[in-house]
């Protein structure tokens, strides 16, 4: 119970820290290619009863990677381990949150696919997610937030264990 409560508190803190990005409109990031793709579902699993885990694909890496899907996060977060493995350039940046500006590490991920949704040149924060991996018992490549999910209409169906992604971009 203590671990679950601590994990929930850590998640809430992480969501708060990443809730408001650097002032960009989350749908203005270049590279969304959801245009005319059909509606498609991807499988999700719940961890700890509330954390949504989905498989995605990072361009340049073999196989699928696990991502936490978090509608309260923007910008999305890449695990520092993945950034090192891919030898991505990591720079310092500022994350503006409620009443605070925090120094963060950032990178640009060349390509990310989540089902039919493909994103190129995705600006992401970089964080060490090793404690999350240990707590969840799974490798986590990152957290997918609204800067990615907001590029299309989507519906998380917890009962059926899937995330439906509509291929059309949401009207602004």
Summarize the structure in short.
With 172 residues, this protein is α+β, with helices and mostly antiparallel strands. It contains 4 helices and 10 strands.
Please supply descriptive tags for the structure shown above.
4 helices; alpha+beta; six-stranded mixed β-barrel; 172 residues; globular; 10 strands; 20% helix; Cathepsin D, subunit A, domain 1; disordered C terminus
What are the SSEs and their pairings?
Elements: H1 2-18, E1 40-47, E2 51-58, E3 65-69, E4 77-79, H2 80-85, E5 91-97, E6 100-114, E7 117-127, H3 130-136, E8 142-144, H4 146-149, E9 154-157, E10 162-165
Parallel strand pairs: 3-8, 4-7
Antiparallel strand pairs: 1-2, 1-10, 2-3, 2-6, 4-8, 5-6, 6-7, 9-10
Q: State the shape.
A: globular
Low-confidence stretches: 1-38, 168-172
- Name the CATH class: Mainly Beta
SSE string, helix = H, strand = E?
Answer: HEEEEHEEEHEHEE
Number of helices: 4
Helix content class: 10-25%
Q: What is the name of the CATH superfamily?
A: Acid Proteases
Strand content: 35-45%
Main beta sheet: strand number and arrangement? 6 strands, mixed, barrel
Structural class: alpha+beta
Q: Write down the CATH topology.
A: Cathepsin D, subunit A, domain 1
Q: Please give the radius of gyration in angstroms.
A: 15 Å
Give the CATH architecture. Answer: Beta Barrel
Which sequence of strands runs across the widest sheet?
A: 2-3-8-4-7-6
């Amino acid at each position: 119970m203590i671990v679950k409560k601590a994990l929930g508190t850590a998640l809430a803190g992480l969501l708060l820290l990443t809730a408001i990005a650097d002032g960009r409109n989350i749908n203005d990031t270049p590279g969304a290619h959801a245009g005319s793709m059909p509606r498609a579902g991807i499988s999700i699993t719940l961890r700890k009863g509330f954390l949504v885990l989905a498989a995605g694909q990072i361009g340049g890496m073999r196989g699928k990677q696990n991502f936490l899907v978090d509608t309260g996060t923007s910008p999305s977060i890449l695990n520092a381990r993945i950034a090192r493995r891919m030898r991505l350039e990591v720079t310092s940046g500022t994350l503006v949150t409620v009443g605070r500006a925090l120094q963060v590490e950032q990178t640009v991920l060349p390509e990310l696919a989540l089902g039919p949704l493909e994103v190129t040149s995705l600006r992401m924060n970089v964080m060490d997610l090793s404690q999350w991996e240990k707590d969840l018992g799974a490798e986590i490549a990152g957290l997918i937030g609204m800067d990615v999910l907001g590029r299309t209409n989507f519906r998380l169906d917890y009962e059926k264990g899937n995330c439906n992604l509509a291929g059309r971009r949401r009207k602004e």
